[in-house]
Amino acid sequence: MKKITVFGATGMLGQPVVKALADAGFEVTALVRNTQKASVVLPSTVTLVEGDLENIAAIRRSLQGAEGVYLSLSFEQTAKSADFIGERDGLRNILSVIHDYPIQRIAYLSSIIQAYEGFRWWIFDWKREAIALIKATGIPYTIFYPSNFMETLPGRMIQNNRVLLAGTPKVKNYWIAGEDYGRQVAQSFLKLTSENRDYAVQGPEALTVDEGADVYVKNTTQPKLKIAKVPLWVLKWAGLFNAQAGYGYHVVKAMIEHPEPFQAQNTWDELGKPTITLAQFAKSR
After folding, report:
1. What gap in Å lies between CA 212 and CA 10, rounded to an integer?
2. Sequence-ordered alpha helix ranges (H) in 141-264
C-alpha cells in the first residue's frame, strides 16, 4: 500500500498523522476546505483536494488512486443533532462511495471514553454507531481508541492564560502526544494487510487531568499560565444555555470518571511504544 487519503487532515489530531504518514513514505492525499491554508500546516508532498464532506464529488476526487483511508473526523462543540456533522453525515458520505475504489484498509480515530456508560449522550451513541458502520463495510479496518491527547491542553483547555478545569478526577488517563500516535498510525498501514484491529492508544504515563494540567503549567514556556477550576455542576449548568459548555461538560465528565486501566500493551508491541512525556511535550510549546 502506497497511497492513502486522509479526511480531517488539518485538524489538531490530523496534522501529526499526515506528517507521520508522509515521513513513512506514503503518498498522501487530503480533502481540505481551503488548499492555501492547508498548504501552510501540511507537508509539501501532500496532494490537496479542495472540498468538504458534504460534497460527494469532492470525496470521489480525493479517493482517486487511494489504497488506504484514514478518518480523523469530529463533532463541532456547538453541534446540534440536526446539523451536518463530519463524524456522522460526512462519514456516511464517504462510506456510500468507498466500494467504488480499491481501498485495502480503513483506519478511524475514535476515543476510549466513547464507551463510557455513566450517562447517555447522542454523540457517544453515534461514535459507537460509526464503528459499527465501518466494520460492516467488509474492508479491513483499524480502529484507534485513544486516551487524552496532550494537544488538548494548549488546543482546548487553555484560554486567556488559564488552564480551565472542572470537577474532581476519579481516574488517571494515559496522555499521549499526537506525534507518537501519528507514528503508530503509520506503522499500522505499513504492517497490517488483511487483519482487523482495535487498538487502545495510551501514552507512557498515567495522570489525572489535574495532575496533567499541573505538569503542563510547570514545564511550558508559556508565561503566566495559571490553573482555574470550577465544580462540575457549574459546567453542567452553563451547558443549559451554551452548546459549547454542554459539550465540554459531557466530555469532561466522561474523562474524569470513565475507568481507564492500561490496555495498550498489544498496541505498543505491534506499533511501537510512545516515548513523549507530558513534561517534554509542554517544554516544546
Report:
1. 25
2. 152, 178-191, 209-219, 232-238, 243-257
Instruction: Tell me which residue has cell 449548568.
Output: 237
Q: Name the CA dihedral angle for 148, 150, 151, 154, rounded to a multiple of 10 degrees.
A: 110
Taking CA 241 as the corner, what is the angle to CA 172 and CA 130, rounded to the nearest 5 degrees? Answer: 55
Hey, what domains does the chain have and what are their CATH numbers?
3-283 (3.40.50.720)
Residues 94, 6: Cα–Cα separation, whole Å:
11
Q: Name the H helices within 100-177.
A: 122-136, 152
- Chain segment 163-214, per-residue pLDDT in tens: 999 999 999 999 999 999 999 999 999 999 999 999 999 999 999 999 999 9
Largest CA distance in the chain: 53
- How would you classify the pairing of strands 162-166 and 158-159? antiparallel
Tens digit of each residue's pLDDT (9 = 90 or more) over 59-83:
999 999 999 999 999 877 676 777 8
